[in-house]
Amino acid sequence: MTTRLAVFPLISAAWSVAGRLLVSTAPWLILFALAAGLYSFALRSQSGLWLPLGAAMLAFLAGTELSRRAYQRLIPGAAAKFLPLAHANLAAYAAFLFIGFFVVFFLMMLPGILINEAGQYQLNDESDPALVREAFIALLGTPYGAVFIACCAVGAGLLGWIALRLTLYGAATSALGKAQVFRTWGRTKGHLKTLGLASLATHILPFALGVAVNGALHRALPDTGLGHFIGGAAGVLVFAPFLLAGHAMAAAAWERLKPAEPAPRPPSSGD
């Protein structure tokens, strides 16, 4: 029998527990934020390679432990082992980085090709950046601009589709105690519409709000080491609703879509 998911129960389940998750995950959320602040500071300082690299590693470890604590609270009986979840996170990030690199590379090359095809401007490697911006803005009002926008939509749609197919990987890994990145691919088949609609409220809306608040903070903070540290740390904290609601939605979906437990074997006549 096919398991059915419903949009509003997923959204309700996510937001009803997201606030309570804040208490159990607060220390790791704070550590994650401090590591992000240190990373932001290190990128703009003369500290060399090791400080930003160490801050990035600390942010990854704190973020993974934040996820582990969240799923442990959300999924009854979850094994919630750290190393399998770290392994799964690295695999998922690598997959997105690999695919995203080619998507972004193509979209960065495409405007130059379309501008030259349009014929209004002829650009080369030595073109003035102001002329390049002018040509790109002019391109957007033409059919060639529509082609570029359509390609951007396809690229974003591809990455969004992959993200939805992998919605369950963290919850499944925590529940089962083994890395489950692409093993969850089939579990979301036939449920992308429901997951996508639910993610509008649990992922996209809080993420968009976080981006808006983060942008306002960066404009308000001074261009100093302390300003960059505060901006990096606050940048994680304003995304807390996105992080917590996203984990809660994934856990709720996993509870509906997880494989059925095998029926107990009846005792044999010799038992």
UniProtKB/TrEMBL annotation:
Classification lineage: Bacteria, Pseudomonadati, Pseudomonadota, Alphaproteobacteria, Hyphomonadales
Membrane spanning stretches: 21-42, 48-66, 90-115, 135-164, 195-217, 229-254
Protein name: Uncharacterized protein
UniProt keyword Transmembrane helix, yes or no: yes
Sorted UniProt keywords: Membrane, Transmembrane, Transmembrane helix
UniProt source species: Hyphomonas polymorpha PS728
Superkingdom, natural source: Bacteria
